[in-house]
Design a protein that fits this description.
The complex is a heterodimer of chains A (203) and B (222). By secondary structure, chain A is mostly helical. Chain A has helices at 5-12, 48-56, 70-82, 94-105, 112-139, 152-158, 161-179; strands at 16-21, 28-30, 33-35, 44-47, 60-63. Chain B has 222 residues and is mainly alpha-helical. Chain B folds into three domains: 1-107, Methane Monooxygenase Hydroxylase, Chain G, domain 1 (Up-down Bundle), CATH 1.20.58; 108-155; 173-222, no CATH class. In chain B, 24% of the residues are buried. The interface between A and B is large, with 47 and 54 residues. Chain B: It comes from Holotrichia oblita.
């Protein structure tokens, strides 16, 4: 059970961004809440999906979030490189925001190409950390895989695979175990049909 | 603005079961939040969760109310496109949620129906809505009918396939799979601190067993 990237994007599109409209309008009463009023050249916060829509109609300029800045992101990238765990990202949906905003409004964002590269670098570093944690986890060498600070998109990239792999591993161990040695406690979870033959050992 | 929504109209959340409990008025935005949460949970949970029909109904009410209003707006109106976009997004949310549930019902028809009957016997609250239950039953019938029809031409393999149906449904249910992971983790960790470690380390991965019950009571979300 996992989400498509588009569905994660859907969730992320609620995030507010600041735009500078080029039109005037009263407050718009959406079901999810009011937005506006819009006054030409006065910044106003709207959900991402509206910002993208207005930008596509050339009705606004987008103000990039303050973390979307080359120097800031370079620092983050260095920090991410040095850290063994995942560092906290400035936005829960940094990848999606970057993709959407850079996609439709690269003319409003200074040094858009550099930003794109740095963000991709950060993403790559984090993904390789995820992969090596998963590797360690699956090989059974460590039971520690720090997944704090992972964003939804990143978690989603391992969501269907990892539980499935662990499940397979467990099955293999189970068969090996029933064939011979028994060294595990049978906990309440374990009971059922699995190894009800095992007697709890004192540890 | 004639298209504004009076959210108080939609306070009447809740169904017959919780009529005694004090009804908390929700704003439309909060209803959407609930819907999104239900959608996420349903997406990520391996088994079917208690239905959220009151949230769905409430949101559908909002949507049709808005569509009604939109009909009175001029097509050229720039606000209309935004409203229309929002309505479409919400529709997607609701249908994706419902589709997800139907997929689960189709995949685990037998086990879901069995659990549902147990709940019925014990007078617990049902997870499926009436429509879903009806769908599940007719789906089950159609599968059985299908196999009956087919198998009448294959006299030799009746037993094999019959037992296969049963087994598939028992084994592939993802809830089992999930239980397995906890076993897996439990086998690899000591008993005492397991839960704690699960919470901190595998927060997104294995929490499900620890939280299965709490999830269904809406204490946490996936």
């Amino acid at each position: 059970m996992a989400m498509d990237p588009e569905e994660v994007e859907f969730l992320a599109e609620k995030k507010l961004v600041s735009i500078i409209p080029t039109f005037n309008s009263n407050v718009i009463h959406l079901i999810s809440g009011d937005i506006g009023p819009f006054r030409a050249s006065l910044p106003v916060n709207v959900p991402l999906w509206i910002a993208v829509n207005l930008k596509q109609q050339q009705k606004c300029k987008i103000q990039p979030p303050d973390w979307m800045d080359v120097d800031r992101l370079q620092e983050l990238k260095e920090e991410e490189k040095m850290s063994r765990t995942f560092i906290k990202m400035p936005s829960e949906h940094y990848m999606i925001e970057a993709k959407l905003l850079l996609g439709c409004a690269s003319d409003d964002i200074p040094r858009a190409d550099e930003i794109r590269t740095v963000i991709k670098d950060i993403w790559d570093i984090r993904m390789s950390k995820i992969r090596s944690s998963v590797d360690v986890l699956v090989k059974g060498a460590g039971t520690y895989a720090a997944v704090d600070n992972l964003t939804l998109m990143e978690i989603n990239s391992i969501r269907p695979l990892l539980p499935h792999a662990l499940d397979q591993l467990y099955r293999m161990r189970k068969t090996r175990k029933s064939a011979g040695t028994q060294s595990q406690n049978s906990s309440t979870f374990l009971s059922m049909n699995v190894n009800s033959k095992n007697t709890p050992s004192k540890s | 603005m004639e298209d504004s929504i009076n959210v108080e109209d939609f306070d009447s959340l809740g169904n017959e079961e919780n009529e005694e409990t004090e009804e908390v008025p929700l704003t439309a935005a909060e209803v959407i939040e609930l819907m999104e949460e239900a959608w996420r949970n349903e997406k990520f949970a391996p088994d079917i969760l208690p239905n959220k029909s009151e949230v769905v109904d409430c949101l559908l009410g909002q949507i049709s109310y808005m569509e009604e209003n939109l009909r009175n707006l001029k097509t050229a109106d720039f606000q209309k496109s935004i409203h229309q976009l929002e309505v479409d997004r919400l529709r997607f949310l609701v249908s994706s949620y419902l589709r997800q549930r139907l997929q689960k019902i189709e995949a685990y028809t037998f086990i879901i129906l069995r659990q549902e009957e147990q709940r019925l016997e014990q007078n617990e609250e049902l997870y499926l809505t009436n429509n879903e239950l009806e769908f599940a039953r007719s789906y089950k019938e159609s599968i059985e009918q299908h196999f009956d029809d087919i198998l009448s031409f294959w006299p030799g393999v009746i037993l094999v396939i019959n037992s296969h149906i049963e087994r598939t449904n028992e084994q592939t249910i993802v809830f089992e799979r999930v239980k397995d992971i906890v076993n897996f983790v439990k086998m690899n960790l000591g008993q005492v601190e397991t839960v704690q470690i699960l919470r901190t380390i595998f927060q997104h991965l294995v929490l499900y067993f620890v939280i299965d019950a709490t999830l269904k009571e809406n204490v946490i979300s996936l």
